[in-house]
From TrEMBL:
Annotated InterPro entries: ABC1_dom, Kinase-like_dom_sf, UbiB, UbiB_bact, UbiB_kinase
Annotated catalytic residues: D286
Organism: Halorhodospira neutriphila
NCBIfam families cross-referenced by the UniProt entry: PRK04750.1, UbiB
Binding site for ATP: I129, A130, S131, A132, S133, I134, A135, Q136, V137, K151
Keyword Repeat annotated: no
Residue runs in coiled coils: 473-500
Enzyme class: transferase
Protein name (Swiss-Prot/TrEMBL): Probable protein kinase UbiB
E.C. number: 2.7.-.-
Compartments in which it is found: Cell membrane
Residue ranges annotated for the ABC1 atypical kinase-like domain, each copy included: 92-342
Length: 553
């Protein structure tokens, strides 16, 4: 049931959307298309809007708060779902969210440190460098002259997130209950994952730890540089990092002016993604243009610089195996193997007919491979594969949602830099090498080396373990022998009992036959007149009854 607070929030959302005139975007969705005829009854549609619809959508999301800004950021990467003009305007939400007052930032910093801001920083820039939905960034300088950036969480943001998440959960539960096709998408699980990511972003200590881990993974790397964290000045609401200077990945003109090799830059972006996913199982899951820069001092060998580590993803070993197998089979156009892997991993029901699923996948993928590389959209291909999987009850895997989103971001960045980017040719050698490393002889030797210290610790105990094992085996053998004897005795007792039962039944039957056999004698009873057969049957019956008695144990 929707309470008064939620009802008030829903009403405000509707008013904001109407005030900014975004009803045309809402009515473009398939769910609301049957209601388009109601447009004639909407007075706000009678006045022509001068602002483009993308601007109106962006401003509505900005006014509705951080949850909707984050939603707009995600949608800005899905050009396969929304019109181009809308996604381009939503891309401005990546780092151009209206900032909060610098007085609030100073107050939060001083509350975290427990002292005046001047005691920690020699200089603090009131004008923020960037402002996002969860936090904003200010420049500063330490007393030793080091230039740093300070990330500060927006004031009051947890309560705002909690309020809007309740609405999203309500909508997701209603969808699962009343929209059959929505159940396959697991909307409640998706919102739960979204909630986890949001609250992870609120904890800047967690983000600092993520940054440190990624920095270790790419130490001395020619592909990616991660700024250092100043742990002494980092807390839950404030994080201080090394200040970097780079060209935004979206500024193509500036990259070209510095002579950056855009083709190599695009290919290295793909290599960074697959390195994070398959080598480290730890990847930057928020790789939108506002978080990626390029080192201008290395035009021939361009290196990426990453910031904002609030959302990171990881994969379990089993996901590694199936994901790599799917990629390799997909690149080799082995659609049979793709279908088999989907069944083996449980992504489609166990009873799915592999040959039918294979044919459906081939129908979607084969036309794409026959087109020029610059016309192949991996986003469109994934979308069509999901639509095809719906026929086979394929379930969306929540643990892969971040990976799918990140891959779409990587493709968008690469194609923006170099439209002829061959994503397949760039990724395939890396995956082949990874498969050799993980499944070949080197992997076996690496696992043996990994286990050697543990084996070395247990080796001195091996004789005692063997002796104890032999003693336990002897005791088990004696116990089994005793149980075997007891079972044999029990079987003998059961056999004797069965024989006594059969004898008793036979004896009773013989006596009854003896009594019923002769005609009724005249009185007084003359025993001499009883036939010999009657005496014989009766005698046999008595003997059988005597044998049925338990004379001994």
């Amino acid at each position: 049931m929707i309470g008064p607070q939620r009802l008030f929030r829903l009403t405000r959302i509707q008013l904001v959307m109407l005030r900014h005139g975004v009803d045309d975007v809402v009515l473009a969705a398939p769910l609301f298309r049957p209601l388009r005829f109601l447009v004639v009854f909407m007075p706000w549609r009678w006045v022509r809007r001068s602002e483009p619809r993308g601007v109106r959508v962006r401003r509505a999301l900005e006014e509705l708060g951080p949850i909707f800004v984050k939603l707009g950021q995600i949608l800005s990467t899905r050009r396969d779902l929304l019109p181009k003009d809308v996604t381009e305007e939503l891309a401005r939400l990546q780092d151009r969210v209206p900032p909060f007052p610098h007085e609030d930032a100073r107050r939060i910093i001083e509350r975290t440190y427990g002292e005046r801001i001047d005691a920690v920083f020699a200089h603090f820039e009131d004008a923020p460098i960037a402002s996002a939905s969860i936090a904003q960034v200010h420049g500063a300088r330490l007393h030793d002259g080091t230039d740093v950036v300070i990330k500060v969480v927006r004031p009051g943001i947890p309560a705002v997130i909690r309020r809007d998440l309740e609405l999203l959960y309500t909508a997701a539960r209603l969808a699962e209950r009343y929209v059959p096709d929505a159940r396959r998408l697991h909307p409640v699980q998706v919102i739960s994952e979204f909630e986890k990511n949001l609250y992870d972003e609120l904890d800047l200590m967690r983000e600092a730890a993520n940054a440190s881990q990624l920095r270790r993974n790419f130490r001395d790397s020619e592909l990616l540089y991660v700024p250092a964290v100043y742990w002494r000045h980092t807390g839950r609401d404030v994080m201080v990092m090394e200040r970097i200077h780079g060209i935004p990945i979206s500024d193509i003109d500036a990259l070209q002016a510095h002579g950056i090799d855009l083709r190599k830059l695009a290919e290295r972006g793909t290599e960074i993604f697959f390195t994070q996913v398959f080598r480290d199982s730890f990847f930057h899951a928020d790789m939108h243009p506002g978080n990626i820069f390029v080192d201008p001092s290395r035009p021939a060998e361009p290196r990426y610089i990453a910031v904002d580590f609030g959302i990171m993803g990881s994969l379990a070993p089993v996901d590694h195996h199936y994901l790599a197998g799917n990629f390799m089979a997909f690149f080799n156009r082995d659609y049979r193997r793709v279908a088999e892997l989907h069944v083996e991993s449980g992504w489609v029901p166990e009873g799915t007919r592999v040959e039918e699923f294979e044919a459906a996948i081939r129908t979607v993928c084969e036309p794409a491979f026959e087109r020029p590389l610059q016309e192949i959209s991996f986003a469109q291909l994934l979308l069509r594969l999901f639509q095809t999987g719906r026929r086979f009850d394929m379930e969306i895997q929540p643990q892969l949602v971040l990976l799918q989103k990140t891959l779409l971001n990587v493709e968008g960045l690469g194609r923006n830099l170099y439209p002829e980017l061959d994503l397949w040719a760039t990724a395939k050698p890396f995956l082949e090498n990874w498969m050799r490393e993980e499944l070949g002889p080197r992997a076996t030797l690496r696992n043996v080396r990994k286990q050697l210290p543990e084996w070395g610790e247990k080796l001195p105990e091996l004789p005692n373990r063997i002796d104890h094992g032999l003693q336990d085996l002897a005791r088990m053998r004696a116990e089994l022998q005793r149980h075997s004897q007891e079972m044999a005795q029990l079987r003998r007792e059961l056999d004797r009992g069965h024989r006594r039962l059969y004898a008793a039944i036979a004896g009773g039957a013989l006596i009854v036959a003896a009594l019923l056999g002769p005609p009724e004698p005249a009185l007084p009873l003359d025993l001499a007149a009883v036939p010999a057969t009657t005496w014989g049957l009766g005698g046999l019956g008595v003997v059988a009854l005597l044998l049925a008695l338990p004379w001994r144990r």
